[in-house]
Amino acid sequence: MLRIHFTEVDLARTRLASRPDPLWEIASSLHRFQTRRGRWAYSGWYRSAAHRLTESGLAPTVRSLLLPAFPRAAYYPDFLTPPESQEGLAAGIEAILATPPDRVLREVALVADTARHHPWLPRLAEPEQRRTLANALRAYHETAIRPYEEQMQARIDADRAVRARAFLDGGAEGLLSSLAPRMNWRPPVLEVEHHMVGGDLHLNGRGLVLLPSYFIWHSPVTLADPGLPPVLVYPLLHKAPPDPAHGAGNPRSTRCWGAHGRRSCSRPRTA
Predict the structure, then answer these.
(1) Which of the residues 109, 114, 208, 245 has the least number of beta carbons within 10 Å of its own beta carbon?
(2) Cα–Cα distance, 132 to 89 (Å, whole number)
């Protein structure tokens, strides 16, 4: 369990994002290609996105470059989801390109299992390799994410309406309480329950950005480095289909694009 500790200042500085973060959505959508878990909730997107990626010729780049860079694992590099991305894809990519090489190497070293099978990953410290990654991110977003932006924004607007009512009724504490059942507000601590998320995150007056995500499935995630601006990315709720044959457990309904290695579904704040 991750325990996020608030002060009164943190409660005053906690805010709810108004739109999807493109790099978090890229990362989480790539995870949807690596597992059948929750596939029923994204079946329409999965089929159309896979078709568009194949037709555009981007599928090999997704498999060889993007999936290894964003493994569905307990950790992937924090620099790939910078806070600047909340201002838009261009700002987020500029932040990735501006990341100091020593930080890139330090964070890539934490995905040693993936790096062993993809020895080019440490080369992301090189500007040219990072530009190649940036071009792939732009192309993937244009092909797989942008056609769904209106639907994503509508779902986030609906979620924000629920959170806004909770805030009007109970202030910041009411907002945090509304995040149940995946999270429990036990003042002054927000408990985030997940078998891979653990430890304590002290906000220390920095506040918290609550970021609703269309493509994150089931469990909230956060950055691994507690020194980075605090963000908690939480999943929107999806209604189950009436036909159980569409469930994630139907082995013949879909197949995954998994990159090499074993993965799980979220990132803890420490490696």
Answers:
(1) 245
(2) 16
